[in-house]
Amino acid sequence: MGPNFFAYANTELTNDGLICWLIDWCKYPGSELYGVAMDLLALLLGEHAKDLHVTKLNIRQQYKNIDMLFEINDEFILIIEDKIDSKEHSNQLRQYRSVVENDFETYQDENRVYVYLKIGDQSNYDEVTASGYRVVHREDLLQIFESHDYVKHPLFRQYHEHLTWIQHEVKSYQDLEPSQWFPRAWQGFYKDLQTEKELSGNHWGYVSNANGGFWGFWWNYASFPSQTEPEYMTYLQIEETRIAFKIEITDPNRPGKEKSEIRNTIWNTFEGLIAEQESSPYLPTKTHFHQGTWMSFAEIKGFSNRESLLEAIAAAETFLTQLNQQLPLRPR
Questions:
Q1: pLDDT one-digit tens code per residue, 288-302
Q2: Alpha-carbon distances of 330 from 55, 258, 304, rounded to whole Å
Q3: Are 219 and 278 in the same domain?
Q4: What would the pLDDT profile of 167-214 be if each residue is shown by its tens digit?
């Protein structure tokens, strides 16, 4: 098989180039790549692709920072924001819409198509869809590529293999123990948590810290002493090797001593709850206390496989619910 080019050329600019190169084959009927190119363009254009025959195609890269811009038959304009492992930021999606509306006035509003192409994964796409973009996922590309597995072009085949390998890494959590999970395996597990479990207010992403960071999943927020005027929030967070019971102080400028007093008071109450349930196989233990806006006060460790991790998640939710029923608490 040999080395894969995209194992080394794995930047978003490289991915932009591959997508542009592939769609450019729409101008070459009868070529080996014409069918896959037209199917890819149809996927990206959505409802506008019906009965489409490409007679004119203008491709631009990085036009005013827009990753990819395609003018098709002087009728449609397709804008693609391409993300691998990064995500939208700095209001960029709305800014790109403004650029297109100002610089390409001849296209009707309904013929301007905005796509957010995601090769990796992210926790949610709320801001993407709110900005008027339709999300196209890695799995969507793979479905098209697999229907054209007869294509022998080496660059296409290597890109197909590259996306297939990413998909394999994301799904690897199903066969490996948590101690063996790499970042994409954690992402795959968190994606499935979102769809299979009713975990309230959940998000996941990379959390950087002085120890090198981790891929975390946080959920189950509750505000105290009231929802409208909270002083702090309790929540749960998976940090790869542990499930942490945490609090967030809503005013980051609050004196450090007061932050610690809130945390200490919560732990003192929680310690009593734990003592009443010593028979639980997933008993929370006290963490090392550090002062800050986000603080852990307890943790559950010791899950060796995916099933025990899911059991630990359920136990953590039960313990936090019991704690929350005894809040709000003010430090004494």
A1: 999 999 999 999 998
A2: 70, 10, 37
A3: yes
A4: 999 999 999 999 999 999 999 999 999 988 878 889 999 998 888 899
pTM of the predicted model, to two decimals? 0.91
Residues 96 and 207 in one domain: no
Q: What number is the average pLDDT over the span 217-221?
A: 96
Please indicate, yes or no, if residue 330 is contained in any of the structural domains.
Answer: no
Neighbouring-strand partners of residue 205: 216
CA angle 118, 123, 129 (to 5 degrees): 60
Residue at 105: amino acid letter: E
Q: Are residues 108 and 203 in the same domain?
A: no
Instruction: For residue 61, give every residue at least 6 positions away whose Cβ sits within 8 Å of its Cβ, in sequence order, or none.
Output: 16, 17, 20, 67, 68, 69
Q: Other CB atoms closer than 10 Å to residue 214's CB: what's the count?
A: 17
Cα-trace Rg, the chain: 25
Domain range for 237 is 176-324
For 79, the 3-state DSSP assignment is: strand
Give domain status of residue 332, yes or no: no
Same domain, 156 and 31: yes
Q: What is the dihedral of CA 265, 218, 172, 307, to 10 degrees?
A: 50
Residue 80: burial class (beta carbons within 10 Å; 0-12, 13-18, 19+):
buried
- Whether omega for the bond prior to residue 255 falls within 30 degrees of 0, making it cis, is no
